Amino acid sequence: MRRGARRWAAGALLLALLTGCGAGSDVRSFLDDTFDEQSESGDTSTYLAAAPVAAAASQITGAVPPAARATDAGTEYLRYDDDIVVVSPASGGSTVRVEDLDGPYRDGTYAYLGQGFTPGSPAATDDDDDDVK
């Protein structure tokens, strides 16, 4: 009986860990639950955040850590596995735009942001740079 109780407890713990790891990992779900959606077109959604850029970006990254983060001219860029989130200044707060990486990311739009934003390499390394000619 004791062995069965341990197995049950271990199984319950494993299930809780797996559920916890998956929960909150989707940045789109977090944005939907947290900010007011202003528009949607295809794979791109735009939200309004009452907080300024740095605070809104910190709120997002605190809930769903990005694979890469960069700042350029007062705009925050957050790269996730399948999406890029752009937090930019707006009247009364900031605008949060999420779009699929298959479009502008893949064709080099965000390459100027550096490592983690280089086209073709979501996590650019020195080895990746050696292959580019």
Describe this structure in words.
With 133 residues, the chain is an alpha+beta fold. The chain has one domain (21-121). The chain has four helices and six strands; from the N terminus they run ααββαββββα. The chain has helices at 2-22, 27-34, 53-63, 126-131; strands spanning 36-41, 44-49, 68-72, 75-79, 83-90, 93-100. The chain has a six-stranded antiparallel β-sheet, with helices on one face. A hairpin with a 2-residue loop joins strand 3 and strand 4. The longest helix is centred in the N-terminal third of the chain and has 21 residues, at 2-22. Residues 11-25 and 122-133 have low confidence and may be disordered. Keywords: Signal. This is DUF4247 domain-containing protein. InterPro entries: DUF4247. Residues 1-23 form the signal peptide. Residues 112-133 are annotated as: Disordered.
Summarize the structure.
This protein has 133 residues and is an alpha+beta fold. Helices cover 35% and strands 29% of the residues. Strand 1 and strand 2 form a beta hairpin.
The proportion of residues in beta strands is: 25-35%
In whole angstroms, the N-to-C terminal distance is: 65 Å
What class, by secondary structure content?
alpha+beta
> Number of DSSP strands?
6
Number of helices: 4
Q: Spell out the helices and strands N to C.
A: HHEEHEEEEH
Provide the low-confidence segments as ranges. Answer: 11-25, 122-133
**Share of helix, binned:** 25-40%
Q: Give the overall shape.
A: globular
Radius of gyration: 19 Å
- Tally of separate domains: 1
Biggest sheet overview:
6 strands, antiparallel
Kindly report the spatial arrangement of strands forming the biggest sheet: 1-2-6-5-4-3
The pLDDT mean sits at 77
